[in-house]
């Protein structure tokens, strides 16, 4: 019975995300539904998640699948509301703000702090685990790459190397610290399904929130008139990548995806799904969740901003409160010279890897498994 309830909850949560694009394109939303209505949907999803967690501790302690289903449905509702706001966001006004001149030096300063801090912290805290310092150093270079390279380094081999090395370093760390636990079956079927669903939900969320997919394509003189699939080149992330662009008016759905963006989103989605699976395993064992677990959703949403190429999700939400006055926030992320989006991405990767490592350490300290991960401070 519990497994059937969880399965139904998973199906409903996924359906909420995939039904949204059709609803968001309907005339009622564009014509009469105010933006704050979708903000209430986001808040409602948060209430459902919090309420499910509360009931799981007080009422449903013997029915964990009910709690998991409620949390997942609440997450789906919250992501649905966010996507809807993004699809009908207020168009920003103006151009790149006057702060543009400060972006390159700010990027260089942030890069210096991240790279130096990573090296010093590695020597002091993890002298036997150089991959930790390497990941921080690579992410630091990522933040300052456009400012440090001639012509923003759009075709420099170093840019391609960075985009490949960062996921490899994160994967290597997880392979050493987390894979022994996964191999020992600490992630059971329920935890695996929860992680897979959360990853899928955030994957859909990233595609729409980053502006890669839209159900509200450009109309008018410059808009497409018939279905098409074509190749293109996008200078994001960091360098120029081959991409596919498409438009399907019958759905309606338009979108684009480059090789680099797919790798970037795949990295974030994989980290989020892994954290969700491990968090579920910790919760099933009635262990106290690390403080990092409580902010997993916040860390994950930064990925949408980090992946942005058309308009960050944070601007869509801010515009609900401030209208076009929030336009400078939009341009602060869109400007290729701005380090803000890259900094969000670096923070998301570091914190999600750290969170997974903490979950692994906590699970390894229990009697649930006999295989211990390799801790960096040993």
Task: Give the topology.
Layout (H helix, E strand, L loop, with lengths): L1 H23 L2 H5 L3 H24 L5 H24 L15 H23 L4 H19 L8 H21 L1 H5 L5 H21 L3 E2 L13 E7 L6 E8 L4 E6 H26 L11 H11 L6 H10 L4 H8 L5 H25 L14
Antiparallel strand pairs: 1-4, 2-3, 3-4
Integer-rounded radius of gyration: 21 Å
Largest sheet: number of strands, sense, barrel closure = 4 strands, antiparallel
Strand order of the largest sheet: 1-4-3-2
Query: Which percent band covers the strand fraction?
Result: 5-15%
Distance between the termini: 44 Å
Structural class: alpha+beta
The helix content, as a percent range, equals 55-70%
State the helix count. 14
Regions with little confidence, pLDDT below 50 for 5+ residues = 14-31, 297-304
Number of strands: 4
The helix/strand order is: HHHHHHHHHEEEEHHHHH
**What is the typical, i.e. mean, pLDDT?**
78
Explain what this protein looks like in three dimensions:
The chain crosses the membrane at residues 36-56, 68-90, 102-122, 134-152, 158-175, 196-215, 251-274, 295-318, 330-354. The chain has 14 helices and 4 strands. With 378 residues, it is an alpha+beta fold. It folds into 2 domains: 1-88; 93-200 and 260-364. A 4-stranded antiparallel β-sheet has the order 1-4-3-2. Helix 5 runs antiparallel to helix 6, helix 6 (130-148) runs antiparallel to helix 7 (157-177) and helix 9 packs antiparallel against helix 10. The radius of gyration is 21 Å and the shape is globular. It starts with a helix and ends in a 14-residue tail after the last helix.
